[in-house]
């Protein structure tokens, strides 16, 4: 479903070039829930942004549903992203002057979906993320965990092939983190949506099925989460 091949990325600032990712290869099957684990600066966000089509890599290919997004022009990529890719941000990124329901419906507004259909889908998703009564409130009236539930619902409304989540529980306390991860796991199972979750926390990665570990821009390990469970902590996370 997702295939990364020979992916490298360097940032250029004036005369200086920083190589951030080097020859990364992996694949993710449809319906998998995968963690991208690594310490700060290891290249996780860069990899996520490349896979989500937010930037072009220096080298390599990224196939989503058999389409190489690296080769797409801006217009095609924008259309492909609207249809196939969902994104969950650490800081939720909700629009403050729209209601919760309007925020969830927004991706469908860009697809010119009929208002009655949009509303129906948003209400169903509000139920699925456990906040059925919050639709007419504004984001500022919700807790952080509730705002992240809204952001999850928004990412799902277009029924994308894959959802990329960048430290989705990074702003939340442990109890709320557990709730959000439980919701993601449930949605992964029931909707068969593929999730790629960036985290620097081993405990979060452990909640997924498969862990890809980055270290200094290199893919260090790619293994089922259960295998990682058997390693001593210092070997599992750097
Ligand atoms: N626009 C940029 N220009 C130059 N270097 C950059 C740029 N963006 C990121 N980098 C560098 O790339 C490396 C990887 O950054 P990245 O944000 O991908 O890491 P990360 O693993 O997501 O870290 P964190 O967990 O702290 O977010 C870092 O050394 C960073 O300084």
From TrEMBL:
The keyword Glycoprotein does not apply. SMART domains: AAA. Belongs to the ABC transporter superfamily. It holds the Pfam family ABC_tran. GO terms for molecular function: ATP binding; ATP hydrolysis activity; transmembrane transporter activity. InterPro entries: AAA+_ATPase, ABC_transporter-like_ATP-bd, ABC_transporter-like_CS, MacB-like_ATP-bd, P-loop_NTPase. The keyword Lipoprotein applies. One of its GO terms (cellular component) is membrane protein complex. It comes from Paenibacillus algorifonticola. This is ABC-type lipoprotein export system, ATPase component. Keywords: ATP-binding, Lipoprotein, Nucleotide-binding, Transport. Residues 2-236 form the ABC transporter domain.
């Amino acid at each position: 479903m997702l295939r990364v091949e020979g992916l490298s990325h360097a940032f250029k600032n004036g005369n200086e070039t920083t190589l951030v990712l080097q020859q990364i290869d992996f694949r993710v099957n449809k319906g998998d829930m995968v963690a991208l684990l690594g310490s700060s600066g290891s290249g996780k966000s860069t990899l996520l942004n490349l896979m989500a089509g937010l930037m072009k890599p220096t080298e390599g290919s990224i196939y989503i549903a058999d389409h190489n997004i690296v080769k797409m022009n801006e217009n095609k990529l924008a259309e492909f992203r609207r249809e196939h890719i969902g994104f969950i941000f650490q800081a939720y990124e909700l629009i403050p002057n729209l209601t919760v329901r309007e925020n969830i419906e927004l991706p469908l507004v860009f697809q010119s979906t009929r208002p009655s259909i949009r509303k129906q889908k948003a209400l169903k998703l509000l139920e699925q993320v456990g906040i059925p009564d919050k639709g007419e409130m504004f984001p500022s009236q919700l807790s952080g965990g509730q705002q992240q539930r809204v952001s999850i619902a928004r990412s799902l409304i277009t029924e994308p092939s894959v959802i990329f989540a960048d430290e989705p529980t990074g702003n939340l306390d442990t109890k709320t983190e557990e709730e959000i991860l439980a919701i993601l796991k449930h949605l992964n199972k029931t909707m068969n949506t593929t999730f790629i979750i960036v985290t620097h926390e081993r405990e979060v990665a452990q909640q997924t099925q498969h862990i890809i570990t980055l270290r200094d821009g290199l893919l260090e390990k790619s293994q089922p989460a259960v295998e990682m469970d058997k390693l001593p902590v210092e070997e599992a996370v750097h």
